[in-house]
Amino acid sequence: MGASSSTEQVSPERREAESLAASTGALTVLEKSFSNLSDPQTQTIPISSLKECFELSIDYQSCEASFKPENFPGLLNHLNHSIVEQFFSAEENGLNWIAFLNGYTKCCGRMTTSDSLNNLLRVFGSTTTKSGATTGLQIDSSDGDCKINGHLLPADLLMLLWMCWAMYWDSRNSKGGVKFDLVDVNNLVLSAVSSCGDGGSELNVWDDSLLGSDIQLPIGKLHVWVLKTVPNLPECLVQFVYSRLSKFAPQQEKMEASSSSTNDNHSNSESHTYLLTPGKAWSISLTLRSTMHEEILKTCFAHHDEVKENLLYRASLHGKGLNRFWSNVEGYNGPILLLISATSEDHSWTIGALTHQAYENKDTFYGTSGSLYAISPVFDQFTSSGKEKNFVYSHLHVAGYEAYPKPVGIGFGGSNGNERIFMDEDFSKLIVRHHAYDKTYHPGSLFPNQGYLPTEAQVLDVEVWGLGGKKVKEAQNSFLKREQLFTEQRRKIDLKTFTNWEDSPEKMMMDMVSNPSAVQREKR
């Protein structure tokens, strides 16, 4: 097997292969999976067994998106062949321990995001070719270094994203039973078209025919777009390969990145009614890491009850307005994602803001970090620029007189009175200003055709999602229970503290108003 005894002489080649595999945190899993996949006599893994290990055939029941390439289901049938051919070099009798480790490291080892993206494109190009479809990818591996040129069409990119979604879904559904749906990632495709296509910024993104157009997306520009917009996309291939090998490692020790998977039987169709649909949640997750990454993916993979746990506020459910918002968000001391659906000039769009701290009632900006999102119809992320720290503004009415009243509402970026995003206290009007007003977040359009002048839009719905995890939510529940208890205690009236009604000043005043000429006898 792959593990070596203390008396066995280990070759430098093997020691190096094991060292590289250990750096990924998967050496124990690889040893166990090799033991279960290999032939006991030859101590090698048959190529047929390895291809069977990576076999992925999915019959999806539904699709969020309106545009569906016809050849996508057949694409996944060739994914296993492409993975084995691209990374695992076998001899005639199969794959030995060193070749197995080298293949895994070649695919899932520690490397730059750019190299990992090249691996993903190689697999996609090979899979597309094997399925009988054509692609504009040009892959040259003749001199040992893989060089990828050419282009992808919008439909090609959509299939690449769906292939990544299928691999990611499979890696989190290791026990089976979760219904597979194709999510709507048209916002990602339109984002790439706007960034990479010729004249992309002038295209009409409201036109559905763009997804099936022949606009070429050069690989060089596509690389830049992935690294800037969805840097976690290549991880889908890494997690898929690791999770499939883990199935052949009983009682395996899983890597931290793959530790939290949801395997219960459910349908995520319930979550399609939220602003944060599975497709939008996955899009945002491709920009995040750590706890926030896992929490937002509950919208895609968790039960409906678990999804609702992270939903702190929804205007259409809890009522519109800053007071209703505050009563549901107060006390949540963790990362918060706010989504706003709005309409202007007969077009609807969705934007978002991610803050890494709790909301506070202040008449000044506050916060330590955050990001703005253009979510639909075109996806984009605007992280902190580091120039200013006007991340969040959330101000309620204050009791008493204010000589210089501050705006009442929620804002992000910019300055008081010139916020980049500002929603009024009734959650009915939204104002979005040009990025020139803002030095806190990176520049860019939050919705298509955004001009220099401020845009006033009508708010359709608002959602707030907590991404701090279970402990943060439990702490907020305890806080809200205490506040409710204090409120009930303040409302209670202790009748013993009041004097007799006949002797009360209130009765005397009422008697005087009803009959002012009556003689009031003074008691002595």
UniProtKB/TrEMBL annotation:
Location of the TLDc domain: 283-468
Biased composition regions of type Low complexity, renumbered to the chain: 258-272
SMART domains registered for this protein in UniProt: TLDc
Superkingdom, natural source: Eukaryota
Pfam families in the record: TLD
Cited InterPro entries: TLDc_dom (IPR006571)
First and last residue of the signal peptide: none
Stretches the record annotates as Disordered: 253-272
Name this polypeptide is given: TLDc domain-containing protein
Source organism per UniProt: Lactuca saligna
Lineage: Eukaryota, Viridiplantae, Streptophyta, Embryophyta, Tracheophyta
